[in-house]
Write a structure and sequence with these properties.
Elements (H helix, E strand, L loop, with lengths): L2 E4 L2 E4 L4 E10 L2 E7 L11 E4 L4 E4 L1 E6 L12 H10 L2 E6 L10 H14 L3 E7 L12 H7 L3 E3 L8 H14 L2 E4 L4 H4 L4 E2 L2 H6 L3 E2 L1 H18 L3 E3 L5 H13 L3 E5 L1 H5 L21 H12 L5 E2 L8 H4 L16 H11 L4 H6 L3 H7 L14 E11 L18 E11 L2 E5 L8
Parallel strand pairs: 1-5, 2-6, 7-8, 8-9, 9-10, 10-11, 11-14, 12-13, 14-15, 15-16
Antiparallel strand pairs: 1-3, 2-3, 3-4, 6-17, 17-18, 18-19
Helix pairs in contact: 2-3, 4-7, 7-8, 8-10
Length: 434
Amino acid sequence: MSIWIKGGELVNPEKGVIEQSDIIVERGRISKILPRGVFGEQGSRLTTVDATEKLVVPGLIDMHVHLREPGEEYKETIATGTLAAVAGGYTSVACMPNTKPPNDNRSVTEFILRQAGEAGLARVYPIASITMGQKGRMLTEFGDLKEAGAVAVSEDGYSVVDSGLMRRAMEYANYHGLAVICHCEDRSLSGGGVMHEGVVSTRIGLPGIPAASEEIVVFREIALARLTGTPVHIAHVSTEGSVNLIRAAKGEGVSVTAETAPHYFTLDHNALIGYDTRYKVNPPLRTPADVQAVKQGLADGVIDVIATDHAPHSAIEKDVEFDRAAFGMIGLETALPLTLSLVREGVLGLAEAFRKMTCNPAGILGIGGGSVREGAPADLAIIDPDAEYGLMEEDFHSKSKNSPFIGRPLQGWNDLTMIGGKIVWQKNSNHPGC
């Protein structure tokens, strides 16, 4: 099927421009990009998608999600997680390895890819464990995992405590062309903590997690990247100190990239005063000063990527006492409007905001996507940036509903998601693949 996407504002993050252009999609690829109105009556032979007053962007790419399958399908499955992804405008997601069992061998990687193929929604890129069983003692077989389809390695949920082992992991990953994604947390400092350590945790009587628990490991990973010459990616940056460390490392020419998540630039630790477990995440929500530092890091390019850290949990894990509740919140269906809020605030330009959600993560992971150019696969999203709405529990497509943004006013809605020229999601449709 050939499709004419007409009347929209084409956001090209690679070039950093916004153009009044139409797109012709043929045989799953972008065959032509034409100035608006040039195609004329020839378009009558094609299926038409009207994007008037909307943005046409590369399909979003989330390099940090938890799909929970295998092992915790009651929280999320690859099918429900990728449905949430396409509803949110994502065409590709990279899933973290802390499943049950962890993705530490070829069979789990291949299983994830089979399940993703059966779901037929977003493209799924498995991230493998750095160590067997995520126990921090023995490296996994990076070459075998790469051959099976893994695009990166991470111990997400943990840091590799042994610095010598982490050095070897970086060298081994570099040899095999795998990205290294680091969860930075010194558990000797954070253990037992449930929120940011500061005046709020003291006031409400909850044990804290100091900013230093993140920053110490960020410093180490940068030092190891400098030592080994291996690019390193710092996950879910939450503190001013981490932003400053990454800024300094980039200034020295160390090959380091970083991501943050929308909750770290929209919420702070004051949100936990009511003991609402939906705000319990790891790393925790930090101070207003940290929020401003994260925004500044996004603005000046220190933080390269906006990822969701989509972490679904059921009521079993969340509707309990605060200190017993699981860390994490879902984010695939709220990341777009929360990121567009940065554009409205003037923190980021429109093209730069989408760059952090498209071509930047694609480049770090070494995967396709993230661009709008002739000949590229037609992975696209059409977004209404002005749509105002509130999401209720029943509106989420994720199996889990642990979002603190339920009922909040949001602005910016994904209208349509296309993958390989196929429309896999459309607003107000009763089913995907419409």
